[in-house]
Design a protein that fits this description.
Elements lengths: L5 E8 L2 E16 L4 E8 L7 E2 H7 E4 L2 H30 L8 H7 L5 H6 L1
Antiparallel strand pairs: 1-2, 1-5, 2-3, 3-4
Length: 122
């Protein structure tokens, strides 16, 4: 990573999932006899203060390119959709086969919605 590089933060902002561009604005090097450690700070659009990379990882997932973010988010979305399809198929098989009777409370229990946080952050 270099000062000036742009990364992308996938996080929740105002109860919506967003992908924010962030820019590395500072690199600090701490060197001792036994090791050298680098610390980075980033700028977030609309924010006055800098945020450390360590704190940034607590806010969400950081991607190094838009292509990487796209691939990862599409994969997670596909997993979530596949889970919903499997659940719907299971309920269909169970309740709409000729030998079963419908119980609406059982259907509602099985058709729990897939939460957005579960689908893209798991």
């Amino acid at each position: 990573m270099n000062v000036g590089d742009v990364l992308y933060l996938y996080t929740e902002l105002n109860k919506r999932k967003v992908l924010l561009p962030i820019r590395i604005c500072e690199r600090t090097v701490r060197q001792s006899i036994s090791e050298t450690v680098e610390f980075y700070s980033v700028e977030i659009p609309g924010e006055e203060s800098k945020v450390s990379m360590e704190d940034l990882h607590k806010l969400g997932t950081v991607y190094d390119t838009l292509e990487h973010a796209h691939a990862e988010l599409m994969s997670k979305a596909e997993e979530s959709i596949n889970k919903m399809i499997q659940t719907a198929q299971g309920v269909c098989d169970k309740y709409y086969s000729p030998s079963t009777s419908l119980d609406s409370s059982e259907i509602q229990n099985e058709m729990k919605p897939v939460e957005e946080n579960e689908s893209l952050d798991s």
